[in-house]
Task: structure prediction
Amino acid sequence: MNIRHLSSTMDPCIPLPIPDEQLEDLTEKAKDYALMHGICMRQKDKFDRDALHFAPFVLFPTPFPRDEYNKAVELQTILNELMHKVAHDYDFLRECLKHTIKVDEFTGRLWNVYETIMSEGGPTQLSLGMLRSDLMLDQHNCCQCGTCPPERRCEKSGKSFCSWKQVELNTIASGFGWLGPASGLLHRYVVAEAGRGDLLKDIPDNGALEGLAGGLVEAWKIYNKPKSVILFLVEDVTYNVCDQKFHEFEIRKQCPEVFVIRKTLTELATRAQLSQDKSLWIDGHEVGVVYMRCGYHPDQYPTEKEWEARLLMERSLAIKCPSINYHLAGTKKVQQELAKPGQVEKFLGYKAQIESVRDIFTGLYSLDHDEAGDKSYDAAIANPDRFVLKPQREGGGNNVYGEDIKPFLEKIKDSEERNAYILMDRIQPPVTTNYMVRPGQDAKLVNVISELGIFGYVIGDKNRIITNKQVGQMLRTKLSHVDEGGVAAGLGALDSVYLVDAGSCCST
Result:
């Protein structure tokens, strides 16, 4: 049994560095495996619709404590239930977002769509929530660091311990349902080629693709129109195309009688229509399920036509993933409000469930113009390195970090724009070492940190939940010294989990 003691660093699953000859051999094999198995993306800087490059990856899987991994997996269905109930609580969403929608134009426009739907009788059809909870291990909770604040001390020993903290919960376009499990397949191949087949048992199975595609198929069957299609709502230009297309392939594999079509918001705006019974039609196809892989960023609504298309879609009988209320439930402001004392209790009835959710919350703070918001503002100005400043945006690249926080906040100190942001404690994950492999570059031995995403899906309406499942995971790893870690942006890489039995003060 692998026993590791967590500290500010975690040992890689294979002692590094490895000999140059072995590194070159494994890297070339891994690149070929990725190319031959669709672990690929289109390049942004040299876009070619007919060309793919392997997605950046790390050569070996990253160690994670088994107990914490299992806790994260088991928690997902509770988070699914929580977010489903939040999404169907109009009063709670309104209270959470009442200031934000006045100063953040994009969130305000989303809210207007929601208000319109509510005024017309509210969303009455079922919703499909395909969610991803993103978590990082917090080394500030580690037995070894000795600098943890009292509120993070383990009750059993008085020491502190390493545990998950939630970065965010995604309710729209939660990507890597294919590239997540594909990374595990790649790593299984690499460690076997490295002569370390003994490690395979500790790389967990990952059914994310089958599970998420199964959720879309289940929703389509509930719609119960055999000739209807599943619509993938996509960007004008898709770079992460393999991640999307493998969902399509898996849908067809599970249910050959359903067809998938791909349309943009602009195409929806110009060619879609509602029938008299409010079914959604485009190009002669009735749409049973809408799966949104875009629509989460203002740039994806360049004209009023795209907003009209969003409203048309929300008015339709098609099952949306996500519906407008689910989209709003995923905003950072709602996440911050849920972290307040007494809020989770409104939606979950069992003490153990409530405590398990609260355990993953890190510090989340309002910046509204009130006493609490002013206190958060002062704390961020005094110690900006302790925090991350977050707007109400998805898609990465929007946060403000470290020393950049102070001048940014000072600029908006007296502005209502402050209401559009939340403040979050900066998570300090343990660092490990790995080889990062990128197209056109030699493999580099670097220090990295990782973020785990747990996938789940939930189907239901405001009165009931029909299906609630955890289906798999993904792992993204980035250079330890950078703030943003997008895989396509050049700072992050695909990864998978290697489970270790980590020594902990709470293991007894």
